[in-house]
Structure formats: C-alpha cells, structure tokens
Amino acid sequence: MKDATMENMNIVLCGLGGQGILFMTKVLAQTALGKGIPVMGAETHGMAQRGGSVVSHLRLGEVEGSLVRAGTADILLALEGNEAYRSLPYLGRGGRLYANASPEVFPNPKVAPYLEKHHMVCRCTEASRVAMEHRSPMSSNLALIGFFSGFEEGPFTFAALRETVERISPEKFRETNLKIFDTCHTIAIGHRRDK
Amino acid sequence: MGNEAVALGLLEGGCQVVTSYPGTPSSEILPGVIRLVKSEGLNTYTEWSTNEKVALDNAYAAAISGKRAACCMKQVGLNVAADSLMSAAYLGTVGGLVIISCDDPGPHSSQTEQDTRLMARLAKVPVLDPSGPEEAREMARIALDISEEFKVPVILRPAIRVCHARQNLSWDPLQSNETKAAFEKDPTHWAATPRFRFLLHKELNRKLDEISRRFEELDGINFHSLEPGKTYPFGIVTGGVPYAVVKDILKEEGRTDIPVFKIGCPYPFPERMAEQFLSACEKVLVVEETDAVIEYFLRERKKVMGRLSGHVPAEGELIPQVIHDAMNGVLKSLDLPLLGEGNEGEAAALAKQLELPVRRPTLCPGCPHRASFYAIRKAQPKAIFTSDIGCYTLGLNLGGVDTCLDMGAGITMASGFYHAYAQDGVEQPIVATIGDSTFFHSGTVGLLNAVYNDARFVLVILDNQITAMTGMQPTPALGILADGSKGNTITLEKVVAGCGVDFIEVVDPYDLKAMTAVVKKAARYSMDPSGGIAVIIARHPCVIAYRQQALPDRKKVVVTDDCVECNLCLERFECPALYHDDDLERTAVDQALCIGCGVCLNVCPKGAIVEA
Q1: Contact A114/B319, CB-based, under 8 Å?
Q2: Superfamily of chain region A9-194
Q3: Which end of chain B is more exposed for a tag (fewer CB within 10 A), N or C?
Q4: Are residues B399 and B337 in the same domain?
Q5: Quick one: pLDDT at residue A48?
Q6: Would you place residue A46 in the very low, low, confident or very high pLDDT band (cuts 50, 70, 90)?
Q7: Closest-CA residue of chain B to A113
Q8: Residue B17 — left, alpha, or beta (φ > 0 → left; ψ -120 to 50 → alpha)?
C-alpha cells in the first residue's frame, strides 16, 4: 500500500445523481491544481447520472489512469450513508471516510469493526441538515466540503478550499455557499477538539 | 475533460469543419470545439447534425473539397454512420478526415459494449486508441495528418474513461486554417461504379500497408519496454485505457520484470513489433477493451492469454481491480511473484451483507415524461409499449416501456408488432413513445413506412424541447444552432403531417386528465377502419433545461393521513420525491427533492396527496 503524500493521493467521492458530486470533485481538483499538483479524475455522465449511485474519482500526482483501484483510496467522501458502504471497498488501509450522516447511526455496527481493523478513520456530520437550515437543500455537497476542510488533508487546507469555493461558485449562490461551508468548518473544528 | 482535449487536438490540427450528433460519452467534444472557436477567434464551422450518418456525410463532403474535417459520435452512433464509413474508406479523402467514435465499456450509457476497433477493421480504416486525455489530444492531431497524407479517413476511439477523465492541459494560441474549398470533379472516382470499386479496394489495401509501416516509424504510437536481447517469462500487451491502468499497477508495485507492449494503433496491426514482443516473452497477457481485437491479431495461440482464453473477463469494463486480479491470476499460474492484495475483498463482502438498496436511474422529479407515461398507462393499460432511446427509456420504471432496441425503433417496432398481430386477426393496442430529438434523428423514416404500409398504433412524441439525456443539446425544433446562434425552426407538427399522418394533437402532459383523454381518443382513431396512425405531441419543457418555464406555478405538496399505503403512487408514478415513511405508516414527500410540479395531486385514488 502506498502512502498518501502531498503529491500523491487517491480520492473517491460518492452519492446519488443530482447531489452535486461533479461540483464537489471540481472544488477539490481546482484546489489541487492551484497548488501546482497534477490531477486526473473520472466522472459519471449520461444515463448513469439520472438518480442512480454516482461515483467520482480524483487522483493527485503523476498517474496514468483516472480510476482509483479498490483498496487504494486515501479519502472517501460520501454524500449518503448507504453509498458510503457501497464504495467502502475503494478505501485503503488507514484511509479516512467523510460522510454526510449522523454520528449517532453511522457507521453501522457491522461496519465499525472493519474500519477499526484496517485503521480507517470515520468522520461524519449531518451535512444535509446544515444545507436545509440554510434553505439550500441542494448544497449538502458544499456542507461536506466545509466539514472536510477542517481536517487539513494534504493540499486541502481550509484557506485553499474556501478560496476555490468562492471562486467557482456562481454569483447567485456564492454567499450562501460560503455560509454553509463556514458553518461546517466550525463543526469540524469542534469535532477535532472533542477527539 | 478528455472530450475537451480531443476538441483541442482537432483545432491544433487545423480542423475546419466539425459535425456531431450527441451521445454519451462523446457529447462534450463539439461544445469543447465551439468554446475554443469562440475564445480563440477561429473560423471552424460546427453543427449538431440530425444523426450520425448525416454528420459523417457532411464532414466527408468538406474533406473531399480539401478541408480538414471531423465528426464525433458515440460507438453505437457509428452503426448509423456505417453506410457512409464503409464507402468513404474506399473513396478516400483529400483533406484530413477523422471520425471520433467514443466507446462505452461497462456499458454505462449505451445499448451495447461494441468495440469501435472492430468497426475500423470492418471498414478497413486506421484506428487510434488513446490511453488518456493528453494522448487523445495528440492522436486527434496525428489522425488528421495521417488521414490527409494517405488520403483515407482515420478513426479515433477514446473510451469513456478518456472522454470523461479530467486532466490539466495547457496550450498555445490557435490559428485558423485558411484552406479554401476546392472540390475537383472526377465522377469516375467520387461516384465510382462497382467495377471501379474493386480497384479502389486494392488501392485501400495498399494504403493500409504503407500506414502500418509509417506507424512503426512514428514514435509514441506503438512501443514496448523490451531490453534488447533479453527474454522474459511473461509480458503484457495492451492499449487504450487499460494501458494506463497496467502502467499504474506496475509502477505502484515496483514491477520492472514485466515488459509492456503498448498498441496505440491496433489497425492496421503492428505485425513486426508484435512478432518481436512475442518472441521475447514466453507468455503474454492481452489486456484490452472492450472486445478481443489485439488478441485475434496475435496468432500464437499457445502463448497468448486474454478475453478469448478466459484469463480476462469476456465482457464489462476493465476497471483497475479487474486488471489487477487478472494479472495476479496469470502470475500465479506461471509461478511468478504476485501483486499485493488489499482489504477490498473483505469490504465488498461486508457491503453485500448490508443488503444496500439498489439505486436504479429514474426520471427527475417534475419530469414531464413521468406524467406522459402515467397517463398512457392509465388510458391504454393493455397496450404494448414500444419506446426508444433517451431519458424516457426510464419510463420502464413506470411500466410504460416494454421495448427499447435502437434509435427510432419505438416507431418501427410499433408497426412491426401491429402487422404481426393483425396477420392473426388480433386487434392489439400499441402505444409507441419517442423523444423529440430521437424523432428527428431517425423517427421520420419509420413513420413514413408505417403510414405507407397502413400500420395502426398511437405514437406519442415526448417533446421536452431539448436533447436532455446527453446534456441539453438543441433540437431542430428550437431553431438554435450548436454555437447558440439562430438557425431555422423545424416544426414537429408539420413534419408529422408531411409523413402522411392525419391525426395530430398537441397536449401538455402536466394536465393528466387532458393527456389521458387524448390517448384514449387517439387509440379509438387508430383502431377505426377509416382511421390511421394517431400522433400525440406531449409538449412540456424539460424541468432541468427550462426550470422557470417548466414550472410557472410551483405547489407545496403534502400527503395526508387519508393515505392507505396502497403504494400506487410509488409504483405507478414513481417520483423520487415520494417515499414510504415507515414511522408515519404512509407515503410522504421528500421536500428536498420535490420541485412542486403538482402532477401527483391527480394520482392518489384516495385524494391523500394534496396542496398545502
């Protein structure tokens, strides 16, 4: 298993069609590019995009293929609990799982021992609830990115991610997007303190 | 995106004409060309053609007038354009002509997993197979050069993982190609009769021999990592997307003991290099998508393993895990050191144990097609429902789609079913559905045929005023061209009338009662001895493309305790915003998904779905 370094990182993003996985992938890719890290990614389009399970891959560093091989993802970002379980085979030993789910019910007791055994870390928050509270139910993706920004993974620092969100959000949604992002970043900081 | 990289390569190669019909995974190439044409101020002509054959014929005419041209489509689109392709291969070209046919191993969004490399072999035209976006860009340019030099069309076949891969690219300013159209008349060539076609075939074979030799000289198309004089117990022959995966795996695992032969041009096949590679390796594994092509060309059966020999799955996408496992299987059988195994098997077993809900693709909340299918089923519950290719194929979730064969078959199969039953004296109701874009693509010919041969059925044209599934491209009915400028509007009603249909009614499917009544009326007309084919145009804008226009009057929808859990709304109407709430013991509305179309207000037999 290879280590996650600043230059080399495998990320898998999953959820349901319509949840904004492509935008989330774009935020991460643009942030890495901004730091001069080459990126390769794979997206889902067409029939597969209409409401079904959607998986997006993002690889940082000098790589040839756009797909993450099972068991080699450093980070798994899941916009929905069941989709997180479905994509779990991607996550490698020591990987971090970020999920839009309530810590009270996630991870499932059947899954928790597996995560522990392979030294995987699970960090979850109710991103959808935050998005709803801001009257923007389609923004769970930004909420999860905001939460993720609290853990400073490799090139994905709070400042860099926030700058990307500000830059690529459409004018109309910029303010709300940043509010949601910041709210979830604060939740993450609290989460880290508790641990 | 890979498709934008292809667009860039075409324009770097001085492409002056680009035509296309949208289809996943090819749809973003033409828009990519248009963006660059606008930002760089180029003179390139672009068009969304009505179908792939039309696109190829248009590009071909430009090419034989001396210009550089390209046409883009998905792999099954090449079937539609096959008639042009076969003939164009014989006749050859003057300016460079590249046909981009995007493959869909999986398949993710296609009816088959067919391999464009086999179509290239069938048509006898060279094919280039890129492994990633950057290489797709280079190959697009090389394809134009080779095509012009050898006067033969060239196919570029990026697979879905190239088309939809994201990679950062940079480029120098682009310049317009100023070559002027100068078609030189030569009817014995451009309109050759069969006697001359034999000579043209001979000429094509000669060109292919020359191209094969040229590719052996060109760096970076076909190459291997053999060290001179060394022999190996095991080597890998690969190309396209699987090459990228194999290279990553070998790098990650630090395996320098396995040589790799990369084939960037599988046809004409690099015979000499293949001979060299095979003689240096005791066994070789062929890793290729989607079908076996390279494996067929490698003639030493005892040495070669791959899809045909069962060492690689015979169907489906070769995702990295599949390639990893195939490699390990062969390494094990050869008693060679294995690749590392991870924890993924355990996770997959765990995920299976959780019995996760299967997420099938479904029509969007508020989709006008849902309303149409609901009304059609209600009005004609016993009909055979022939349908077609587009978002509305998902009408099968509502029981409104029984068949989906190929573009245009919603209509042609309806007439086929009619005659099959009528022959036995059976009056079988048939309701065909087809989208507006698909109707323009290949619906009219079938409709003409059905009217001419006196078939009887109801045809519902689902007119959402856009090509939705492939990413919102305009249709001829919109009168908007590919680059956003104004074209001419083709009126659907007039086309239908021109096909000889006398019953044409336009209805908004959001009005379920009106839609249901029209379907009933149309069915009566189609069964009447003095009637004929009845066409209904179900017109309502796509809710994704035209949010405001499609939803002028949004409603807040809730479910009351009158709900008796009959689940009719969940099964027959199947809106993603309606779900069964186990705690409330009734249907509920997911307000995050509901967009307030209000169509479901007329669905519940108990009247439990109401406006708040």
Answers
A1: no
A2: Pyruvate-ferredoxin oxidoreductase, PFOR, domain III (3.40.920.10)
A3: C
A4: no
A5: 55
A6: low
A7: B350
A8: beta
